[in-house]
Amino acid sequence: MTNSPLLHANRVSKQFSANRWLFQNLDFVVSANEQLALRGESGVGKSTLLNICAGLEKVDAGEVLYLGQALSQMTETDRLRYRRDSLGFVFQAFHLLPHLTAMQNIMVPSLLSGQTRIQAMHDAKSIAEQLGLTSRLDGFPTELSGGEQQRVAIARALVHQPCLVLADEPTGNLDPSTAKQALETLCSICRSSGAALVMVTHSEQAASMLDRQLILTPQGLSEPLAMTKQNA
Ligand SMILES: Nc1ncnc2c1ncn2[C@@H]1O[C@H](COP(=O)(O)OP(=O)(O)OP(=O)(O)O)[C@@H](O)[C@H]1O
Ligand SMILES: [Mg+2]
């Protein structure tokens, strides 16, 4: 066992170009089972920061550690294993595989983790039901609405019971009532499985459903003013 936090962003910096920084020296820690919302203006770097935490983009300074191990120091195989086994990722633009049905898309992480086809189908059906997708499982991504695609992306991120879920605007394309329902499902599945959740959102209401919020601005990361006052 390790005492290291699940995820630790340690002075993480990313450059636009040679002498322009997108952000510098960002620090935050996410503990197991914790739910953190990340807010901020469009273009401030939230998706980039999430991609860095997923090992999909490199830092230009600092490091992201998963259970004490810097992603940049991992071998490519270990980084792949981290993404495959420990991580669930909901992309802002879904990134569903177009030639696979909703069901097959949701099964992918389980199959990659070495589960049998029968188990993968069982798990996919179960998570799809929780997200209200049962009747749409035979549809290909182009046959699904934006909201349905988004829920498939959420199901795919959760199906293999990852330790850490990174979600980039996971309810951005849903109507308010479906968004609330999908978000509650996302949070409750993470709570019951013990997964930590880092969620980018523009919605103050969505952010308030999580344990903690951080706001990313060109000056760095900070807690929302109201929360700082409350805690003072
Ligand atoms: N690969 C890249 N090369 C150069 N610039 C990039 C790259 N990826 C993102 N950017 C720029 O970095 C900035 C931050 O982008 P990012 O997508 O992280 O913002 P965001 O906070 O997620 O915005 P939004 O809320 O609109 O999704 C943007 O100005 C974007 O154009
Ligand atoms: Mg973004």
Task: Name the features.
8 helices; disordered C terminus; binds magnesium ion; single chain; alpha/beta; 4-stranded antiparallel β-sheet; globular; binds adenosine-5'-triphosphate; 6-stranded mixed β-sheet; 38% helix; Rossmann fold; 232 residues
Summarize, please.
This protein is α/β, with parallel strands linked by helices. It has helices spanning 46-53, 76-86, 102-112, 117-130, 146-158, 176-193, 204-208, 225-231, and strands at residues 7-17, 20-30, 35-40, 61-66, 69-70, 87-90, 164-168, 196-200, 212-217, 220-222.
Explained architecture:
The chain is of the alpha/beta class and 232 residues long. The chain is 38% helix and 25% strand. Strands 6-7-8-3-9-10 form a six-stranded mixed β-sheet, sandwiched between helices. Helix 3 (102-112) packs parallel to helix 5 and helix 5 (146-158) packs parallel to helix 6. Residues 46-47, 92, 168 line the site of magnesium ion (MG).
Give a topology summary.
Blueprint: E1 7-17, E2 20-30, E3 35-40, H1 46-53, E4 61-66, E5 69-70, H2 76-86, E6 87-90, H3 102-112, H4 117-130, H5 146-158, E7 164-168, H6 176-193, E8 196-200, H7 204-208, E9 212-217, E10 220-222, H8 225-231
Parallel strand pairs: 3-8, 3-9, 6-7, 7-8
Antiparallel strand pairs: 1-2, 1-4, 4-5, 9-10
Helix pairs in contact: 3-4, 3-5, 5-6
Bound molecules: adenosine-5'-triphosphate and magnesium ion.
Residues 46-47, 92, 168 line the site of magnesium ion (MG).
